[in-house]
């Protein structure tokens, strides 16, 4: 019946269901650290902006209101350090997951084309390649890929699932290599505001990385994590105006416009750093508590300098760790959801309430 769905991998989260049932049977309830979904309130100023725009009977513009575009260019310059950003360099999109999944199709890729992404990665990069019939290819170092037929290269720093931050020099080297070989770079930077240790995460749009020009590079940003807006589907892309112009045209014809109240809420959210700082404090405390408890319990944590995850191992197959923690009422994601290189790790999200995080810490003996 459906040729497209047959190209897709098994939906991995279904495999976690039995462990979820085990964890849910714990006397003090489940602590679900498996999914990186925000649990704290949407900041009030954002809720107010959404509500104030509730009376929006007409179709929204695909490119966004001028106020939203100003907010996007302002944020990209102010927060990412990009220079000379105009409205032609920004495009609001409905959710970055949707962008990742449908970008290769919208770029016109198909059989014979290759899409590269990190060996350990957010699974939707592969899904996007498969949806259009392109060939997914994993890399350790993108500059070691064969550039033949490589039409799209995904970067992801800070990384989901490992929390690794790609150093600025490494990003610059990759961008130079991609430009030399005519490979389009999309850099998924949705955790950029969530750096904890070591060097600050840097955008591909920073002049030290791209030389102040945006040809061949696009950054992907989401408000889901920084502003607790996963439910709003608020995201945008910024960079090469030719690529964004083509995507704008496709979206004018094909829809996928950001709802007007979400556009208004996004503009306000990007204009306020206060709520980001507050949310960061909550996550920093949860991260520190969980990290100490896991290490005290014999786990080793790798990378995890940024993002909303601890990449943890007991030096055993990940499903054994998942089963072990489920008995303690704690649900985590097995590392092999993100590629076979993760088969001895689990991903522990610190997107749970303080109360649930404390419950996990107690069960781990912290
Ligand atoms: C690396 C990465 N990219 C994109 C997304 C999608 O975020 P959203 O669709 O909420 O913008 C996620 C969500 O977890 C992610 O981890």
From TrEMBL:
Keywords: Aminotransferase, Transferase
Transmembrane spans: none
EC number from the UniProt entry: 2.6.1.-
UniProt key word Kinase: no
Gene3D superfamilies: Aspartate Aminotransferase, domain 1, Type I PLP-dependent aspartate aminotransferase-like (Major domain)
NCBIfam families (UniProt xref): DapC_actino (TIGR03539)
Ranges of residues in domain Aminotransferase class I/classII large: 30-364
Annotated gene: dapC
Names of the cofactor(s): pyridoxal 5'-phosphate
Record family assignment: Belongs to the class-I pyridoxal-phosphate-dependent aminotransferase family.
Keyword Cell inner membrane tagged: no
Organism encoding this protein: Streptomyces jumonjinensis
Top-level enzyme category: transferase
Name of the protein in its database record: Aminotransferase
GO molecular function, one term: transaminase activity
